[in-house]
Specification:
The chain is of the alpha/beta class and 444 residues long. The protein has 3 domains: 105 residues, Immunoglobulin-like (Sandwich); 226 residues, Aminopeptidase (3-Layer(aba) Sandwich); 47 residues, Membrane-bound Lytic Murein Transglycosylase D, Chain A, CATH 3.10.350. 38% of the residues lie in helices and 25% in strands. β3 and β4 form a beta hairpin. It binds zinc ion.
């Protein structure tokens, strides 16, 4: 018994010793361990390519460029590379090839470029599902001329900016079955784009048309450069439980986010910037001053339009999906902050709800959502057309005939003629029926 007891103690001691040795050797490895590049993602976009390096620890790096041919060289100190480089540049127009070499524990990455680019390079601290990252943006040097050009639209077109939420590094919310919000939002945005471009008097501008990240400031400055009249941002909601469901429509107000859901949404947007990579956010300060000045001048007007469209979109969404909220919600978040452009944010449903996650990936349901958003926007601008727009010339008001109304009374009241009223309402005589609905032309 006693022997066994001693033996047991000896075993425990041995074990402790082993544990101690293992721990100290592990510790000594990690103390001297090199950093490592564990992932590289390439996100080509119309104006730039973003390249993201996942690194185990905060990166120590230096970089320089070479010309003839154009190359970018990044030296990662004390780092090994574990990523296969061969196919990385396959789908990117700006990087032709990645190469690497290693000497004295330093990994040298060489990017062979199609031409020279404006570049920004910055580390990002861990956020969400990501650890330490080094982010590299290669911007086309002549991008501004192209970007500032007005889209090919006809005189009188209302230009609708369609903003598919998230993209690239930022997946948005992720559903239980692994659905990425960024894919759902882009699918709905593309369907909406088609509907709007088919509509006479409307023209769509896509803020994002592929799987890449556009930072929040750039989203609004793009909208301004493209002379957008109305801005719609498309998202899919998520909450910490799977219970909430239904769609909602948000309008920006200066008030601080009050409801729990509004706070949640505002936080998610901040997180989105961290995931997507906050580069460029700091650079555009002068721009945002201008935005503030403009916002103050036209805030009232744009808020009215935003609420008007929000109400119309809700009316249409109600017909095809459950509503989480039946009235426009107030939020105060980045993408809608540029209130010189009237805008709404549509949460198309909860990706965190199992049934809605399934629906949101279903093309037919995406189409219904796009249809509803399109009809809502159209109905608003038909009823309240912008001055000089095509809709101003085709829109009709409605009038329900009451006792005492006659064609001549109505013609006078609505500043039009009896013959015009008769023509557009297909009336054969001057007689009106009480309760009858008449179309009234908008312009005389
Ligand atoms: Zn979102």
């Amino acid at each position: 018994m006693y022997h066994r007891f001693l033996l047991a103690i000896a075993k425990i001691r041995l074990l402790r010793l082993l544990v101690a040795i293992t721990c100290s050797s592990l510790f000594s490895i990690s103390a001297f361990a090199a950093n490592s590049i564990d992932g590289i993602r390439v996100w080509p976009a119309p104006e730039n390519t973003r390249i993201v390096f996942d690194v185990k620890k905060k990166p120590e790096y230096k970089y320089f460029t070479l010309s003839k041919p154009d190359r970018l060289v990044i030296d990662f100190n004390n780092t090994k590379n574990t990523v296969a480089l061969k196919k990385l540049a396959a789908n990117d127009p700006r990087v032709k090839l990645f190469r690497s070499s290693i000497s004295k524990g330093k990994t040298r990455l060489v990017l062979e470029l199609a031409q020279s680019y404006q570049l920004t390079i910055f580390p990002l601290a861990p956020a969400g599902q990501y650890g330490h990252r080094l982010v590299l943006d290669l911007y086309d040097k002549n991008r501004t001329d192209e970007a500032k050009s007005k889209p090919k639209s006809n005189v009188g077109d209302i230009i609708i900016g369609i903003d598919a939420g998230h993209g690239g590094e930022d997946p948005g919310s992720i559903g239980g079955k692994g659905t990425y919000e960024k894919r759902v939002t882009l699918a709905i945005a593309k369907k909406l784009q088609k509907l709007i471009n088919k509509e006479k008097g409307m023209k769509a501008v896509m803020i994002r048309s592929g799987d890449y990240y556009v930072n929040i400031n750039r989203r609004t400055s793009l909208a301004r450069e493209k002379h957008v009249d109305f801005f719609v941002s498309i998202h899919a909601d998520a909450f910490r439980t799977s219970i909430p469901s239904g769609a909602s429509v948000w309008v920006v107000t200066k008030r601080r986010a009050e409801s729990e859901m509004a706070k949640w949404l505002a936080n998610r947007e901040k997180k989105s910037e961290l995931l997507g990579g906050g580069g460029g956010v700091i650079k555009n300060t002068s721009d945002s001053h201008l935005a503030l000045a403009l916002a103050d001048m036209s805030k009232e007007h744009s808020l009215g339009v935003s609420f008007g469209v929000a109400n119309n979109v809700i009316k249409e969404l109600k017909k095809i999906t459950k509503m989480h909220k039946k009235t426009p919600q107030n939020g105060n978040f980045g993408v809608l902050k540029s209130s010189d452009i009237p805008s709404i944010l549509v949460e198309t449903g909860f990706i965190s709800n199992h049934r809605e996650e399934k629906n949101l990936t279903w093309s037919k349901h995406q189409q219904r959502l796009a249809d509803a958003i399109h009809r809502g926007i159209k109905n608003h601008f038909l009823a309240h057309p912008l001055t000089g727009s095509y809709f101003a010339s085709v829109g009709y008001k409605k009038h329900k005939v009451r006792s005492g109304d006659s064609l001549s009374v109505l013609a006078q009241r609505y500043n039009t003629s009896m013959s015009k009223l008769k023509a557009i309402n297909n009336l054969k005589s001057n007689a009106l029926r009480i309760g009858q609905t008449l179309k009234i032309p908008r312009t005389g």
